[in-house]
Design a protein that fits this description.
heterodimer, A: about 110 residues, mainly beta, six-stranded mixed β-sheet, four-stranded antiparallel β-sheet, 12 strands, about 0% helix, globular, B: about 120 residues, seven-stranded mixed β-sheet
């Protein structure tokens, strides 16, 4: 069974600074996908970034980037130039093709002015 | 497309009552998922469908929970009878892996409170 672990229940960062959220996963699959979702207080689940396991290049989306270490089964999210609107719960998630997403427990990020 | 649409957004009911949550997936998506979110357990998969057929319902907590997908554009999650421990946010999500991406698109969730 696949598992996703987020070891940081809460984090905080000063506005304009950089923060990194950690995620590790366990799977025996060779082809899979990793995601970071953001859940603001509105509770909408918003996809932030995705990474295909077969791609060696780390994904980036504007201020968001990942550090994907396949051998270590690690998938961290870096948020640069943090903004107040980045305050939210962040969930790391995994799936293998057509299987449902498996989520970590989440990290609550607070951006402080 | 309007995205995944769930109704109601909030539901307050008394213990023992029947509750029905509704979901309209994104048109063309062939997978539909029901998740439950609580503080203690995070996001848990309850059941998912492919082309309207239930594929895995092992996450459904007990026989009080049932889900149907009578057609490609509608699904329901029913709890009968409801109990206070069912209080949670219930999410519906849909996806279409054949598009080349496998992420799920979520509705805004239904916050259920059973008193």
């Amino acid at each position: 069974a696949q598992t996703v672990t987020q070891s940081q229940p809460e984090m905080s960062v000063q506005e304009a600074e950089t923060v990194t959220l950690s995620c590790t996963y366990d799977t025996s699959e060779s082809n899979y996908y990793l995601f970071w979702y953001k859940q603001p207080p509105s509770r909408q689940m918003i996809l932030v970034i995705r990474q295909e396991a077969y791609k060696q290049q780390n994904a980036t989306e504007n201020r968001f980037s990942v550090n994907f270490q396949k051998a270590a089964k690690s998938f961290s999210l870096k948020i640069s130039d943090s903004q107040l609107g980045d305050t939210a719960m962040y969930f790391c998630a995994f799936n293998a093709g057509n299987t449902p997403l498996v989520f970590g427990k989440g990290t609550r990020l607070s951006v402080i002015a | 497309d309007a995205g995944v649409i769930q109704s109601p957004r909030h539901e307050v009911t008394e213990m023992g009552q029947e509750v029905t949550l509704r979901c309209k997936p994104i048109s063309g998506h062939d997978y539909l998922f029901w998740y439950r979110q609580t503080m203690m357990r995070g996001l848990e998969l309850l059941i998912y469908f492919n082309n309207n057929v239930p594929i895995d319902d092992s996450g459904m907590p007990e026989d009080r929970f049932s889900a149907k997908m009578p057609n490609a554009s509608f699904s329901t999650l029913k709890i009968q009878p409801s109990e206070p421990r069912d209080s949670a946010v219930y999410f519906c999500a849909s996806s279409t892996p054949t598009s080349g991406t496998t992420e799920a698109f979520f509705g805004q969730g239904t916050r259920l409170t059973v008193v």
